[in-house]
Amino acid sequence: MRSISVTLSVLKVIYFFSTVLQFQLYRSMCRAAGQYVPNDPRKPLHKCDIYRQPAAGNLLKQLMAKGASQPWQEVLQETLGEGRLDGSALREYFAPLEEWLRQEALRTNEYVGWNYDGDYCKRSIETAGLQIFGGYYNAAAGPLVSLVLLGLCSWLSSSLI
């Protein structure tokens, strides 16, 4: 049963990376098609339409033609000019929605978030033997977690080649 949960977790990590990469590719294809121009309100990323755009198709063909002959980082660098995963395209795509939600929350006086009950949370976290930084639990600050994440990322990048 444990190996199934580990496998499912790895699949979730791969799915996460593929989503980030999808938006990164979309942004590059939109640029190639002239459908998106950074900082131009007339051509925002979220309104890009690459349907029947030869430049976008050619970029995708060029990317896919490499197959598994090179590491994916090199293929991205050669094709898109970006050699690593970058989540900024995802943030940029959803920026109008994020701004609308922020404005709507202000307009309707909605409270976004939750109240922090420091005593209860602190007791729970200390009982579990976890560390607290600044009153909040921050697992990423633990050195062991950082090493595990580094190892996982290295393994994933080498296995996706």
TrEMBL record:
Disulfide bonds join 30-48. One of its GO terms (cellular component) is plasma membrane. The keyword rRNA-binding does not apply. One of its GO terms (biological process) is proteolysis. GO terms for molecular function: metallopeptidase activity; peptidyl-dipeptidase activity. InterPro entries: Peptidase_M2 (IPR001548). PROSITE patterns: PEPTIDASE_M2. Keywords: Disulfide bond, Glycoprotein, Signal. The keyword Transferase does not apply. It comes from the Eukaryota. Pfam families: Peptidase_M2. Belongs to the peptidase M2 family. PANTHER family: ANGIOTENSIN-CONVERTING ENZYME. This is Angiotensin-converting enzyme.
